[in-house]
Amino acid sequence: MTGAGAKSAVEWLVAAAPDPEACRWEWERNPLGVALLPAGRLWDVLILPGELGRPTLDVVAGITDRPGPVLADLTDARLGFFVPPGTSARWVGTGVRSAGHGTWVVVPYPGRSTGGVRWLVPPDGSGRLTDPVVLELAMHEAAALLADGPGAAGGPDARGGPPGGGGPAGAE
Q1: Predicted structure pTM score
Q2: Span 91-116, mean pLDDT?
Q3: CA-CA distance, 56 to 79, in Å (whole number)?
Q4: I need a labelling partner for 150 at 20 to 30 A (CA). Which of 18, 27, 28, 79 fits?
Q5: What are phi and psi of 11, to 5 degrees?
């Protein structure tokens, strides 16, 4: 991520903080390079298990110009898709955790690596989020690919790699 892109992403993220300057201070001084930001103001986060999240990200990346921001924990056990505020209150799917109004999310500084969480798709500062309808359809497609099993025509590893491996172009 370029300096200008990271700066724009930082400005967008800290706009969600109750105290943007405190958020910047935390990012600069926290040895882990993370800050806690409230969900429900500018975005909610839908958290998918990694087994479903990676192939879902692949499908979303294939049908949109650029997905909204996506976080992953260190082991890719969970992926967090940034979606419009209010989505978590209306989400009915099972197996998906959510962070919405009244919850906080650990967010790494854009463009820096951290100890426990990283950006698979960093924010670009534009406010772009993943459309929840697109995300839901992508989840269904990814689940169908997983159900077909490895090596099935169009299955998760039909291209010769591990299921869900690789992610979208330009992802970290």
Answers
A1: 0.83
A2: 88
A3: 10
A4: 79
A5: -60, -45
Q: In what order do the strands lie in the sheet with 44-49?
A: 97-99, 44-49, 78-83, 70-73, 117-121
Q: Which residue stretches of the chain are H helix?
A: 3-14, 20-29, 50-63, 87-90, 132-148
Distances (CA, A) of 45 to 39, 81, 94, 104, 150: 7, 5, 15, 10, 29
Q: Which amino acid is at 152?
A: A
The pLDDT of 38-63, averaged and rounded, is: 96
Residues 83, 77 contacting (CB under 8 angstroms): no
Tens-digit pLDDT profile for residues 106-144: 999 987 767 789 999 999 999 999 999 999 999 999 999
The amino acid sitting at 155 is G
By CB atoms closer than 10 A (0-12, 13-18, 19+), residue 137 is middle
Q: How far apart are CA 81 and CA 87, in angstroms?
A: 11
CA distances from 83 to 6, 86, 90, 151 (A): 20, 9, 12, 32
| Owner of token pair 């109750």 | 18
